[in-house]
UniProtKB/TrEMBL annotation:
Alphabetical keyword list: Membrane, Transmembrane, Transmembrane helix
Record field: transmembrane: 29-46, 118-138, 177-199, 250-273
Organism: Grammatophora oceanica
The protein's name in its UniProt record: Uncharacterized protein
């Protein structure tokens, strides 16, 4: 919730073109919160995978059943899978934002050859998982290949269990999968830059910032927008699980929140930084 709140404040500054030192402070706060979220999610994922963990008092299994719904769902909508999705997306997008930020420590660049390909793989997963989930639904669950892939994804997210059958999606779950697909599309806009950074390194990025002074603002900001949207999705997911409101109420509100966190401020950023940025040409410079 705190990360989403910071996201709204930063998005507001984009709308009004307030790119200054205080903007960097909001970015740095987002990085700290993003890393914290990732650490907590990793802890949860590891807990999910501790299938042999036992409660000392009664011998019942703990971990997966305590924090993740035991009711498996289809593909990316599955409770365990969506937590893995949120954690990995947040980690990759936070890295890309920090890597292109004016606040980036020089040490971070030394790991481009490792973090670049890893993040690129995560960005591709973030669109593939919801896409396959939707394909499975709209093809009436007839594809054995897609079914096998989704069972593998859900099984791995749940600690390597064997998934015998995937339940059909409800209409609301289709909407949620579509929302995650849109978030995955946003992630794919980071992929060309991630690939170029991996192949060409800091010399390329230094040249880009010299030719396009606003490029650092736009790249780091749009990556954070992806983080905000993903974590807003996770907040909505957890609120629905806790019964704070029904998913039918939460999902439309989440959609409006994502528009406020991503689309509007991105358009505003392009407007304010228009003559200082490059949308495509900078990849080849």
């Amino acid at each position: 919730v705190l990360l989403t709140t910071v996201g709204l404040l930063l998005s507001t500054r984009n709308v009004f073109g307030r790119f200054d030192e205080s903007y960097l402070e909001f970015e740095n706060m987002s990085y700290l919160l993003g890393i914290t979220v990732v650490v907590l999610d990793i802890q949860l994922i590891l807990q999910m995978m501790r299938r042999d963990a036992r409660d000392d008092s009664n011998g019942d299994e703990v971990g997966l059943q305590e924090t993740i719904s035991p009711n498996g769902r289809c593909g990316v909508i599955d409770d365990a899978t969506v937590h893995v999705y949120g954690a990995t997306y947040t980690a990759a997008a936070t890295w890309w934002s920090l890597r292109t930020s004016m606040s980036c420590p020089s040490l971070i660049g030394d790991f481009d050859h490792i973090l670049g390909p890893l993040s690129l793989s995560i960005f591709l997963f973030s669109i593939t998982a919801p896409l396959l989930t939707l394909i499975h639904h709209y093809t009436d669950y007839q594809s054995k290949l897609v079914d096998r892939i989704l069972k593998t994804i859900v099984g791995l997210a749940r600690g390597g269990v064997t998934v015998d059958q995937l339940p059909r999606l409800s209409d609301l779950e289709v909407y949620r999968a579509t929302s995650l697909f849109v978030i995955g599309v946003i992630a794919c806009t980071y992929a060309p830059g991630t690939l170029t950074m991996t192949l060409r390194g800091q010399d390329w990025w230094s040249r880009v910032m010299e030719l396009h002074p606003g490029q650092s603002w736009i790249e780091s900001t749009t990556a954070l927008f992806g983080v905000y949207a993903t974590q807003a999705s996770m907040v909505a997911h957890r609120a629905g699980k806790k019964g704070v409101a029904t998913y039918a109420q939460i999902v439309p509100a989440f959609t409006l929140l994502c528009l406020a966190l991503t689309i509007f401020p991105t358009i505003s950023s392009v407007y304010w930084l228009g003559d200082q940025i490059s949308l495509v040409e900078f990849y080849g410079e």
